[in-house]
Structures are given as C-alpha cells and as structure tokens.
Amino acid sequence: MIGEATKCDICKRDKQETNHWLVAITCPGYEGILFVPVEATEFRLEGYTYQDICGQGCMSKRLSRWLDDLNAPAPTTPKSEAA
To answer: Which of 10, 25, 37, 67 could staple 58 via S-S, CB 3.0–4.6 A?
Structure first.
C-alpha cells in the first residue's frame, strides 16, 4: 500500500526514517503551543491544529512565528459615530 509522504509544514522536506520529527500543537482560543514527539500524536483530537515539524531548526521557526502572532497588536474596530 502506497501512502502519502509526510512533509514538514515549515520547510516542506519529506519525512525520512532517521529524522527526529516533532508535532506543534495549538488550539484556537488558547494561548500556547506544545511541541511533542510525533509518536505521541497517534490519536489526534478534533479542534486542535497539528503541524509536522522536521527538526530543531523548523521548530525554532515555528515558535518564533507563534511569538510574533502573540505579540501582534489586536485588531481594532472603528468606533461608530453618535448621531
């Protein structure tokens, strides 16, 4: 049976047997990111976002992106004018 190859969600590299892959887990509405070994995510829960990460370099890039998003200013809504 031919399965679809797993690719890193950051650099798009194909998964190899010797790579030490991680999974970045986030959940909308919660401030946090969790990195776990890919073996720990055999069963994935609905509502969470899982990203395959090929190693430490891409993990650092993903963490940096998450921190940038966390520190981004919240969108503001225009105030309605009173009549």
So the answer is: 10
Contacts 24+ apart (CB under 8 A), 49-53: 49/25, 50/23, 50/24, 50/25, 51/9, 51/10, 51/23, 51/24, 51/25, 51/26, 52/6, 52/7, 52/8, 52/9, 52/15, 52/21, 52/23, 53/8, 53/9, 53/10, 53/21, 53/22, 53/23, 53/24
Is 0.85 surpassed by the pTM of this model? no
What digits encode the pLDDT tens for the residues 20-76?
Answer: 789 999 988 888 899 999 888 888 888 999 999 998 999 999 999 998 888 777 767
CA angle at 37 for the pair 33 and 42, rounded to the nearest 5°: 100
Instruction: Note whether 15 and 7 are within 8 A (CB).
Output: yes
